[in-house]
Amino acid sequence: MASTTPTPAPPSGAAQPREQWQSQMGFILAAVGSAIGLGNIWRFPGVAYTNGGGAFLIPYLVALLTAGVVYLLFDWALGHRYRGSAPAIFRRIHPKFEPLGWFQVGLCFLIITYYAVIVAWSVRYMGYSLNRAWGDDPAGFFTKDFLHLLPSTQAHVTGDVVPGVMWPLVLVWLFVTLIMAMGVSGGLERLNKIFLPLLVVMFVGMVVRAVTLPGAVDGLNSFFTPDWEALADPHVWIQAYAQIFFSLSVMFGIMITYASYLPRRANLAPTSFVVAFSNSSFEILAGIGVFSTLGYMASKQGIAVSELEGITGPILSFVTFPQVISMMPGGHFFGMLFFGSLSLAGITSLVSLIQVVTAAVQEKFGMGVRASSVVVGLVSAALSIGLYSTSNGLNMLDVVDNFVNNIGIVSSAILTVFLLTFVVRRLPELHHHLSEHSAKPLRGWWRLFAGYITPIMLTVMLVFALVDLVQHGYGDYPSWFVLAFGWGALALLVIGSVLLSLLPWRTRVDHFVPARLEGVEPRPYHHHIDPREVQEASR
Questions:
Q1: Residues contacting 327, CB < 8 A, separation 6+
Q2: pTM for this entry
Q3: 169-186 confidence digits (pLDDT tens)
Q4: Separation of alpha carbons 428 and 469, rounded Å
Q5: Residues in contact with 110: Cβ distance below 8 Å, sequence separation at least 6, in sequence order
Q6: How confident is the model over 420-447, as pLDDT tens digits?
Q7: CA angle, 441 as apex, 439 and 443 as ends, to 5°?
């Protein structure tokens, strides 16, 4: 077990004692809240439907076990063992790895600037549901009246701010900044203890209403009827891994940061299964609710479910569902449940992304919780409002999101696994740490999948995405627009990560040695420090 030998307190100027979750349950709720987000509701049902229906659940389950659980544990081992923000953790492993930590922070920073906008749309649509403000043309209302959206072929940088988007976005940023300023236990943990149960109750209520609609059975048949031939298509398996990978918030800083706030004695392995299966259960529940609703819509229009369009992404949420809400009795109540669920899911995920950034800022610049929350909130809100509340907001969001998810996050995961497995060879150490902090020792299957088998699938995903983007570009946007906000965004992340790594730390991040593990020889430590000034992980 970890050493309990007392160590001297850090000298003046060292980091303050790290915040902690008040309970294991608080951590679980926060992790589940991070995993359950917008993608569970608007992405999974469409991905499953177009990749084999019920048969998709087989590769999905395989991906859940071999990638989802595996990399949840990978992140939790890093966070719990090295107890810091992403840049601090990678620096503690090797000083030259610090830019990788900042790259993960940068990915989260890019995501929060546009993720908050979608939450603001959801909040606004809760109000629109009361009087069905979209009228008889939900598509036209969303793109023209609400977003004032420029055609994608004419996408360009503009300062044309849309007030109907800007003001809800301002309120969202004020709310989440307040939550972040209240700290890990007082803000994040308390938020998830309230919002996550409320989200489940609201969403279950929506699903119950959906499955009682006329035509719901046809929708469910379309969703669950298996196309067994799809299992022979490698693309289907890639989509299953992509869904699990992105849905569970793994390998780009979130779960590393969350695990760093766990107390020294924590039960890691069983918790990963709870979080992973809770997330997947919600996704399947979302599929039931969405396709029951689509079945009703198809029956009202006298067409088959397969003939419907707009079954995934923002169009599903802000065009297709408003159309259904207008058709059904009591639609305004159904709309409140749907968009309320979307708002809650978005907020619980948004705060987890922000925490990655604020934790890094706190440690790098020696700021307190409130100061770092305000700084990150103000900078993020300024960019979020300035870029995404304009008439070009959705176009920019689409491009940035595609490159961040399909290139940035997957690249981060592959590089992390490669460096820790083959360069510094920390995989056995992480394996032993997980075994010592779990109810039962972790078997060798984890190391096999984490370091060798699953990275191959991730590499295939990355190659497919790169080849497609190079050969076909992205959408019908101008090439300069994709270059600037797609490739350019990733290039800025790389440059910024290196530059941030060159700045001095205002906290003694190097004065830390991981707790000793039985049967594991200590790895070489890369900093020359005074042993009297060491802050050991057992503190």
A1: 296, 297, 300
A2: 0.92
A3: 999 999 999 999 999 999
A4: 36
A5: 400, 404, 408, 489, 493
A6: 999 999 999 999 999 998 888 888 899 9
A7: 135
